[in-house]
Amino acid sequence: MGIKILLINGPNLNLLGTREPDVYGKIDLNKVESQLKTTAQNKGYELTCHQSNHEGSIIDFIHENKLADYLIINPGGLTHTSVSLRDALSAVKIPFIEVHISNTHAREEFRHRSYLSGLASGIIIGCGIEGYGLALDLIIRRLS
Q1: Number of domains making up the chain
Q2: From the candidates 45, 50, 70, 100, which is the catalytic residue?
Q3: Please, are residues 58 and 50 in contact by the beta-carbon 8 Å criterion?
């Protein structure tokens, strides 16, 4: 197996492109994933994508892919609530980049705290969907 990168999107990101397009943009998650997979393949990497509205499904996916080389995660609302997700990421020790489409620090107070950021090897906030591409480019540079 080659170098494997995971892309995980949490709750409500399946609505990307239709949910609050002024905040999250108008491009849907399938297009984001397709573009990232193409970029990864062109550079010789494997990108596996997973989205779930269920915390346990995301944790199971992380456990099942514990040998991945790197991970990009937009945990959505789980960012601010999930100790279990933090524990899963800590347990498998996959380096990861945390991505948020909107600037969480310019939003409601409860969005200012992330349970994951202290474990992340990088954080990209407020760059729109381009943040995913920035994360992938950074990972590819780090793994080359």
Answers
A1: 1
A2: 100
A3: yes
What is the C-alpha separation between 65 and 115, in angstroms, rounded?
A: 21
pLDDT category at 60 given cuts 50, 70, 90 is very high
CA 94 distance to own-chain centroid: 13
The active-site residue out of 24, 45, 70, 132 is: 24
Helices first, then strands: H and E counts in the chain: 5, 5
pLDDT average, residue stretch 47-76? 98
Q: Is 100 a catalytic residue?
A: yes
pLDDT per position as a tens digit, 66-77: 999 999 999 999
**pLDDT for the residue numbered 112:** 81
54 is annotated as an active-site residue? no
Name the residue range of residue 91's domain: 4-143
CATH of the domain at 67: 3.40.50.9100
Q: What is the DSSP letter of 15?
A: G
